[in-house]
Amino acid sequence: MLLKNFNVLVVDDVVLMCDFLYGVAKKVPGCYAFKALDGKTAAETLENEAIDLLITDIEMKGPTGLELIYRVRSGSFASTAHDIPIIIFSGNAYLELIQQSISYDVNDFLAKPITADQLIRKIQHHLQTEKQIKSAAHYLALNSDFSAKTSVPEENRKVSVAIVRELNPKPEAEAADINTSGKKADEKDFLFWPEQATTGYFQIDRRLRNFAFHISCFHNVFVGNCKPVAIESERKRACEACDYLFHITKNIKHKERRHQFWLLFDQRLEKLKPLAAELNSVNIKHHSQILVLLKRLSYWWMQTCNRPIIQKNDDNGADHG
Amino acid sequence: MAKPATLPVLDLNVLIAMYGDDSAETITLALSGFRREATHYVQQLQRGGQHDVLTDNALADTARLCHSLKSMCGLVGAAKLMQLCMTLEQAARQQDLIILQSELLNLAEVWPELLSQLNLTLLQHGYADE
Q: What's the pLDDT tens digit per position in A276-315?
């Protein structure tokens, strides 16, 4: 059994509050906590450590919480992914502040005070729940003037959600084809991430789950004979998910020591590279090519999502804080 | 909203609920940390209040200090001071100098009362001052 490890950064310029948040984050099984008393230290931590969840106050000297969030979402930090869950922990909930937070797709807005138990539940919830975050370029393009009101075009949000929601369930025959492990897969998923599974790296788990989700979306719009624009859009998202898997893996690998795992996982990624290149260049009008590619992707997935690369997650493990 | 006079100076039940722990170690750690940090904040607030003219920057600083102090009070159950900080923060943000000055005078009463309660509670929980 592996314990899923993740890094949580708490930022608050009040020492007592920062220590409280740090102490609570450390209590979450599998959690390594970092703390920062100002935006500058927080930025350094985000740059040097692969942070998986950020909890920040807003009103701070130096870079404020919102500036920090903007920098995370626009992909300014080398070691931290732009789409990590972000929780704002503030004593004030002004309308303008909330609007800005929404434009940066902040995952939660917690009003002080909050008990340790409530906070632990929130951390666990956001580490287990994926929120669709747009590309870093989107947030980079947002007006960085924090005094100006920013908003995301509503129609864009609707389009991105609608494509996912309108997926057709795949035919049962195909499900049987793919599901060779004998387990009953989620009927909507072409590829699926097994419950309670982990590579031992929270960020890699996220990327693999994301990869499976987007390949499944691409598969579903394709077999569902959706409009070419929808198929093309899902193909691009699946390509982005592949790229991000490669990118994140490269960052984590530099700092880790599990040689056996990395040897095997590297081999699997090498096998994925030509498939990702094909996905990137495939013409969606060539149905037979796409069907073959999807089959190869599902075969890759089956071989990868197996022991020893993934193992059962021991969520009830000891405190690793 | 309860009147400041009816609010408890220090409610340990709040602290225990917030930290999810009623051990003497947690209580003393939280209260001693609070006492140290809050003293610093109160001193800054009182120094700021002594100026005859409060500039926009000074008001913003007052609002920020009260905001931080308020959240600290919420964490350890210092309800009376928390209520006072809320009023002060609001007055500073609205640039209401009359309320600000009168509430800063109240701070000179509320803080010593809380401080003596803190000292007593720490002593009762076996905390020895450095």
A: 999 999 888 888 899 999 999 999 998 888 888 888 776 5
Q: Is position A321 within any domain?
A: no
* ipTM of predicted complex: 0.90
Contact B37 A116 (CB under 8 A): no
C-alpha dist (Å) from residue B81 to B78, B113, B114? 6, 10, 8
**What residue numbers bound the domain in which B17 lies?**
4-124
**B37: which chain A residues are within 8 Å (Cβ-Cβ)?**
14-16
Distance from CA of B94 to the nearest CA of A (A): 14
Whether residue A135 is found in the same domain as residue A75: yes
* Domain assignment of residue A189, given as a range: 155-312
Total count of residues recorded for chain A: 321
CA–CA gap between residue A12 and residue A60 (Å, rounded): 7
Number of domains in chain B: 1
pLDDT, tens only, A233-270: 999 989 988 988 888 888 777 666 778 888 888 899 99
